[in-house]
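Structural biology now treats backbone shape like a language. To illustrate, our science desk offers a sequence and the tokens encoding its fold:
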Amino acid sequence: MRLKPTTSVALFLMFLLVAQTTLLAVTNDVNTTMLTSETNGEDSFSVSARNAPSWSTPVSLDSTDDIGYQSSLAIDSNNNLHVTYLDWTNQNLEYTTYDGSSWSTPVSLDSTDNVGRESSLAIDSSDNLHVTYYDNTNGNLEYMTYDGSSWSTPVSLDSTDNVGWQSSLAIDSNDNLHVTYLDYTNGNLEYMTYDGSSWSTPVSLDSTDNVGWQSSLAIDSNDNLHVTYLDKTNYNLEYMTTGNNTGGNNSGGNITECLTFTNLSFDYNYSAAPQDSFNLTADLTNTCAEGVLYPNTVVVFEQEGINVTNSNNWRYEKGGNSSS
């Protein structure tokens, strides 16, 4: 007659009894551990449980001096690992990589002055590496890139006041770079972007109180930007996005008009063949309370063509992705 224990204690006792008198077969894989008793076909008993992934033993990647501070890890399309970090002893920006079989010897990417703090590493679709970090000597936001063969010379993206703290770098589907960081002097959340040819002028996204600390930037499948950060005045978690009320890229619906054009002029040549591009010059007035993220805005005209008789027909829209 089979026993049918109804409590966990009885179940445990039954397991011990069976384990002492039968052969246990143990099956292991990444997700499951199963113990099954063999009892000549009479009775059987098994225990199955889900396991978490097995972590490896810790490995020291770099043990020279006092190093490994504020590391940033990224993985390329070939599953090779790349990491940047601070060498505190020498105040350098360090880098090492794993090619699938072994880790490389650490390399100092920037050893000028007191640099390499709070690095943020990202990899584009061509497996080029990009890193932003803080130059503590000059109070600048620094940038370097690796094109597959060599690292670039460090470039100061923002050197106004004491800026570049705690940067967060992200790359969109068009391989445009986006970075948020702290302006320590003014306690602002700052933003810059790279469109493939040049970096934009820094923009203050939030300048209310002492904000912008420890920002984390991410980009969704629609290339909308999302950033979280610390409001150190009120000790709140803050959030901003370039998304719109309809979600994702906007193809109509609710749009927030942030900037108004006045004194509009342009160099469109009416006598020439249709032109794909032309230059606009205008004075802009911000009508939004929040900061405007210029890279995610678009200029649209309310009517077809570009025959402008009234500059008020033009507007600068936040959250749009199409023009007419």
